[in-house]
Design a protein that fits this description.
8 strands, alpha/beta
Length: about 140
């Protein structure tokens, strides 16, 4: 599937398994944060929408305005952070490398790279929308 030219209908009909869709006030800002820090690839980036690829996994980013008829929009807090409680684990990203790029990309480093008792080295990076991104590698 060519993610740059696929129609919304074909893309939607082709999705399988579990999906992740993040709402944001600024799609372009989120893409500009995620791609350099986590090595993601972005497709169809606009003010309203983007398809992001992390390894062979896809997820979507939508602006608030695209959710005008979605019941979730009414539940979003007016003041950030809005993603509290959501932890997005990226098991194929070096936490030391990601943390070294995070602040320049606009993330807040909540926890620097740390060896954890569950066998992973990880850090916790908070994006402007309040989502916790956790790059990690096996020890």
């Amino acid at each position: 599937m060519d993610y740059e030219t696929v129609s919304a209908e074909t893309f939607g009909a082709g999705l399988r398994g579990i999906g992740l869709n993040l709402l944001t006030r600024d799609v372009r800002r989120m893409v500009e944060q995620l791609c350099p820090v986590f090595g993601m690839t972005a497709h169809r980036v606009s003010d309203d929408f983007a398809i992001l690829r992390y390894g062979d996994q896809l997820f979507q980013v939508h602006s608030d305005g695209t959710y005008a008829r979605n019941p979730l929009l009414d539940l979003l807090p007016e003041n950030p952070p809005r993603g509290a409680g959501l932890e997005i684990r990226l098991y194929d990203t070096d936490p030391d490398e990601a943390a070294s790029k995070a602040e320049d990309a606009g993330f807040t480093v909540l926890q620097p790279p740390t060896d954890k008792p569950h066998g992973l080295r990880e850090c916790t990076l908070l994006c402007a929308d309040g989502y916790a991104w956790v790059p990690s590698r096996p020890l």
